[in-house]
Amino acid sequence: MIALLSRLFSRREPVLSEATPQDAAAIAKLHAASFNRGWSEDEIDRLMLERNVLTHRATVNGRLVGFIISRIAAGEAEILSVAVATSYRRKGLARRMLNLHMGRLAGSGTRVLFLEVDEGNAAACQLYRRAGFREAGRREGYYTMADGKRATALVLRRDLT
Ligand SMILES: CC(C)(COP(=O)(O)OP(=O)(O)OC[C@H]1O[C@@H](n2cnc3c(N)ncnc32)[C@H](O)[C@@H]1OP(=O)(O)O)[C@@H](O)C(=O)NCCC(=O)NCCS
Q: Is residue 1 part of a domain?
């Protein structure tokens, strides 16, 4: 009965907030589950300790289910990575994280946001296009996929002002 009540009242809706280096292990785990080449906890920890790096996280009952991370320089920023845990995908969570992230970047003076994405990554391309990103360049054969094939990177841009 108690277990049932605690399940009923436990929060299932992801809560968004700024991440800290203490989230590095959970971010590394989600990154490794989401991309062919993972980042180590140490790489993420060092990245997050940089003063010009902004990271947001989505948690459910304290468990990390999404993150987005950018590096800022001279009024511009680049999204380095974004991922959502598989069981939370296609529920608008990446869109919510991206909107919060762009709002914070704009609020702290970032005027333009860039990123690179595999043109075959339908989910990511749709996410960015719906958020107003436009193609600023193409890098043919830029990525090497798990099967050894090459894929094109799109450089996308979004003005924040
Ligand atoms: C890309 C990713 C972050 C999207 O997260 P998400 O929370 O599922 O995205 P959302 O639910 O906010 O959806 C955003 C848009 O993308 C669309 N979308 C999401 N998954 C899709 C898919 N598999 N195929 C086509 N469109 C998709 C949604 O329909 C939505 O578009 P809409 O506004 O027109 O309805 C997630 O799929 C992921 O973690 N992928 C692995 C890591 C990755 O590829 N990151 C991007 C690297 S650049």
A: no
**pLDDT one-digit tens code per residue, 37-53:** 889 999 999 999 999 99
pLDDT tens per residue, range 58-83: 999 999 999 999 999 999 999 999 99
In a domain, 4, yes or no: no
- Ligand 1 binding residues, C-beta < 6 A: 34, 82-84, 89-95, 117, 121-124, 126-127, 130
Burial per residue of 64-102, b for 16 or more beta-carbon CB atoms within 10 angstroms, e otherwise: bbbbbbbebeeeebebbbbbbbeebeeeebbebbbebbb
Residue having the nearest C-alpha atom to atom 21 of ligand 1:
123
Residue 2 lies in a domain: no
- For a mutational test of ligand 1's pocket, the pick from 84, 113, 143, i.e. the residue with the most ligand atoms closer than 8 A to its C-beta, is 84
- Total domains, the chain: 1
Put simply, whether the predicted model's pTM sits higher than 0.85 gets the answer yes
Query: Which pair of structure tokens corresponds to residue 101?
Result: 């992230």
What CATH number is given to the structural domain containing 110? Answer: 3.40.630.30
Q: Which domain holds residue 99?
A: 10-159
Q: Which atom of ligand 1 is nearest to the CA of 125?
A: 16
